């Protein structure tokens, strides 16, 4: 059975619709859903669905009463990053969905996520906040976990200390995800590299230090295509990793229109995307 793919976004930005259409292109049998606002309903084309976020906000609102703010990010932004998991949980309950794929609105998906949803994939779930498969039982656990860590002073101090230990990170849902993934679920880190491919952490960043590194170009991962499929090349080797997704974070959102599957060249030889010219060019043999 195909996994539904869910986006949550409050504003009307064109890249959201492009990411939804890419998810549908690579997962034609999946429901692709935007939980959003009246202003962005138009981003859902005929083959996707739109639901009003306000219908699933009750438990997210309750979480706001225990939330504590300790980051340079704005209060509203950081709070909503936590609240979205309560919104997703309540949406799944209302729709009778036991398992889904959640994507941030700047993630382009290039694989059939239902085919990747197997035992080899388990360690990756709940590792990235911007790309993850959620089952309702674990999502319930995470929402309870979040509430406990903000409501209870001792747990909150544990969260602050953990954020400090991993590099003075701001207290965000990403930090709590790592804590939940590593210690509550007791899963090992994959850093997004699964089954000879990768779910991208951030196009602007290299792979984690523990992983083989990919070629870079103009401060971003160098992305290759062959026969319409996307890859990174492992530096100093002739090995390639399939790109299951790309995360166009920050200013990289400007490249999203060039990375739609139907617009990527489909050639027998490798080409790479040249960021300065926004063109696909032949790669050196």
Q: What's the pLDDT, averaged over the residues?
A: 95
Largest sheet: 8 strands, mixed
Shape, principal axes of CA atoms = globular
The N- to C-terminal Cα distance equals: 41 Å
CATH class division of the largest domain: Alpha Beta
Secondary-structure-based class equals alpha/beta
The run of helices and strands is EHEEHHEEHEHHHEEEEEEEEE
In percent, how much strand structure appears in the residues? Answer: 15-25%
**How much helix, percentage-wise, in residues?**
25-40%
- Unreliable residue runs: none
Count the domains: 2
Named CATH topology of the largest domain = Spore Coat Polysaccharide Biosynthesis Protein SpsA, Chain A
Q: What integer value in Å does the Rg equal?
A: 19 Å
Number of helices: 7
Number of strands: 15
- CATH 2nd-level architecture of the largest domain: Alpha-Beta Complex
Task: Tell me what the structure shows.
Helix content is about 30%, strand content about 20%. With about 280 residues, it is of the alpha/beta class. The chain has 2 domains: about 5-185, Alpha-Beta Complex (Spore Coat Polysaccharide Biosynthesis Protein SpsA, Chain A), CATH 3.90.550; about 195-280, no CATH class. Strands 5, 7, 8, 11, 12, 13, 14 and 15 form an 8-stranded mixed beta sheet that branches. A 5-stranded mixed beta sheet has the order 3-2-1-4-6, with helices on both faces. Strand 1, helix 1 (about 15-25) and strand 2 (about 30-35) form a beta-alpha-beta unit. Helix 3 runs antiparallel to helix 5 and helix 5 (about 135-150) crosses helix 6.
């Amino acid at each position: 059975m195909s996994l539904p793919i869910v986006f949550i976004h409050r504003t009307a930005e064109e890249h959201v619709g492009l990411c939804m259409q890419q998810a549908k292109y690579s997962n034609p049998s999946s429901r692709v859903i935007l939980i959003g606002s009246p202003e962005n309903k138009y981003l859902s084309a005929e083959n996707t669905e739109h639901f009003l976020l306000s219908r699933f906000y009750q438990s997210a609102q309750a979480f706001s009463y225990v939330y504590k703010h300790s980051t340079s990010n704005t209060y509203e932004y950081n709070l909503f990053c936590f609240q979205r998991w309560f919104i997703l949980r309540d949406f799944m309950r209302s729709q009778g969905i036991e398992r889904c794929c959640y994507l941030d609105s700047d993630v382009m998906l290039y694989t059939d996520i239902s085919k990747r949803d197997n035992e080899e994939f388990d360690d990756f779930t709940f590792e990235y906040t911007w790309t993850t498969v959620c089952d309702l039982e674990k999502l319930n656990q995470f929402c309870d976990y979040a509430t406990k860590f903000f409501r209870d002073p001792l747990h909150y101090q544990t969260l602050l200390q953990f954020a400090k230990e991993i590099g003075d990170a701001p207290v965000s849902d990403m930090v709590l995800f790592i804590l939940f993934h590593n210690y509550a679920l007791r899963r090992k880190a994959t850093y997004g590299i699964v089954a000879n491919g990768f779910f991208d952490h951030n196009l602007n960043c290299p792979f984690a230090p523990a992983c083989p590194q990919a070629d870079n170009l103009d401060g971003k991962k160098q992305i290759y295509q062959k026969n319409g499929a996307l890859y990174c090349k492992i530096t100093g080797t002739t090995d390639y990793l399939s790109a299951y997704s790309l995360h166009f974070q920050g200013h990289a959102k400007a490249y999203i229109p060039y990375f739609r599957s139907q617009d990527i060249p489909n050639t027998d030889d490798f080409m790479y995307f040249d960021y300065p010219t926004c063109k696909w060019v032949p790669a050196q043999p």
